[in-house]
Amino acid sequence: GDGEILIRGPGVMKEYFGNPAATAEVLKDGWLHSGDIGFLDEGGHLRITDRKKDIIVTAGGKNVAPQNLENELKTDPLVSQVMVHGDRRRFLSALVTLNEENVRKWAAENGVEAGEALHANPRVVARIQQAVDALNEKQASYATVKKFAILPKDFSQETGELTPTLKVKRKVVTQKHQALLDAFDAE
Fold this sequence. Notes:
Blueprint: E1 4-7, H1 20-26, E2 27-28, E3 31-40, E4 46-51, E5 56-57, E6 63-64, H2 66-73, E7 79-85, E8 92-98, H3 100-109, H4 122-136, E9 145-150, H5 170-176, H6 178-186
Parallel strand pairs: 8-9
Antiparallel strand pairs: 1-3, 2-3, 3-4, 5-6, 7-8
């Protein structure tokens, strides 16, 4: 019902050895609950789109897969990383980091003063707003990003914001930028 991929067959595990509680959590009525969200495409291939634990449930009760939004926004050459936030919030917001090399090149080509604070430059912010607007045009109203902030530094493994496979650690980023995320909702 929520898009979680369920698996059943002879190759599925019988149990977690010596851990009946963990077994009961993932095996229900003979089905392994994978924790992944996905769908079968028109060719009959299984497409994994998100992790169930990452699904955002808005204050209005709508389920939103943040990775789809993040990946779409990351196709913009000026964007490096994105974290969409909105669990139990009235709307979705996003924290965006810039691709330093591409944003400096864009600034030079567009006559923007390439100072230290490009993330706060009104023309850079307006350019990222265009990317957010283009993303939002393709979404249902509850799945649109209403507010965003461009952070001064990219996420990194050294700061604990990225995994070794360069995925955003939502919990770490949320804790680090909690005041900013709360301010979005307070406005």
